[in-house]
Specification:
single chain, mainly alpha
Length: 90
């Protein structure tokens, strides 16, 4: 029952957070948030005795919620790429 050990999830969250720094796209950070929440839930005893499939479902939902929150928090105003109509050399 290694998957039910809280510190494994926290270590996975830290590793995913470090990997996010190498590939900055807010993709792995959502998974890190999900792993951190599952690890916190196991550490606090809230998720003790939960099956592997339920933990994976909680991890997936928490990761998706974290990714959506990051997307909303750091989105560009107007959701359009910045374009320029002039040349700096003119």
């Amino acid at each position: 029952m290694l998957w039910a050990t809280w510190w494994i999830w926290i270590v996975a969250a830290i590793i995913l957070g470090i990997l996010e720094m190498l590939a900055p796209a807010f993709v792995l950070l959502g998974f890190a948030i999900g792993a951190g929440l599952v690890g916190a839930g196991l550490g606090l005893g809230v998720l003790t005795g939960v099956s592997l499939s339920a933990l994976m479902a909680i991890f997936a939902i928490a990761s998706l919620a974290g990714w959506i929150a990051l997307r909303l928090m750091f989105r560009v105003k107007g959701d359009k790429p910045k374009t320029f109509d002039y040349d700096i050399n003119d």
